Hints:
The protein is α/β, with parallel strands linked by helices and 265 residues long. It has eight helices and seven strands; from the N terminus they run E-H-E-H-E-H-E-H-E-H-E-H-H-H-E. It has helices at 18-29, 41-51, 71-85, 109-137, 158-178, 196-209, 213-222, 232-243, and strands at 9-12, 33-38, 62-65, 91-95, 140-145, 183-190, 254-257. A seven-stranded parallel β-sheet has the order 3-2-1-4-5-6-7, sandwiched between helices.
Amino acid sequence: MNLDLTGKNAFVGGSSKGIGKAVAFELARLGGNVTLVGRDEQALMQNLIDLSFIGKGDQRHDYVAVDYSQPQKVKSVVERHIKKNNKTYHILVNNTGGPNPGKIQDAQEDEFIAAFESHLICNHILAKLFMEGMKKDGYGRIINVISTSVKQPLANLGVSNTIRAAVASWAKTMANELGEFGITVNNILPGATETDRHHSLIKTKSEKTNTPVEKIEEEMLKTIPLRRFGKPEEVANAVAFLASPAAAYINGINVPVDGGRTACL
């Protein structure tokens, strides 16, 4: 099975920590040249140093520090980065921190707008910046890390449920249009994964309901057939496979990585 990413350039959103960081490191292990992306420049710089110790040999990694809450700034910063480095990207991993939790009936209009811009609009901007290069090279992988909520909405994540579903539909439409150029577009749907956001959501629920964290975790684990939370590296493995030559005929799908929690097929 060909998982070799030698010579492929990857742009990985949210790679200062969590799932994004795990994805960046896995793509590098497979030989890819990785551009780390996020807001925390110090974390990106440290990750860049750590990347130099893994991989298959002569790889060139770099980073872009930018905030996805400002789509037009994302566009200008990435355009400059591409021009400066004369780089074609073959792999785009769209990964952005989720909106704040809360019931949809309590959500403010600006929360939807902010989430739409940082997720779907930034995804679209980056896809448009990279797709011509992908077409030219005959190799493209656009992979969106979203949520199992696109299959089954999750309680108390009203804004996230709405925006993640919009991204999933955007991706399917893009997959239909770009397939003829050898570009695939797919979604990875993480379940309960041990990240800062996962722990933050549990802590918030604990404080609001006056329930011990351990009790909340116990109840969550009952809904997962594997009876454990996922690890960022396990999500990264799925992303890396979809990014590889081995996944060339997989296009326009949602892949849950959730230990079996999602009840539907």
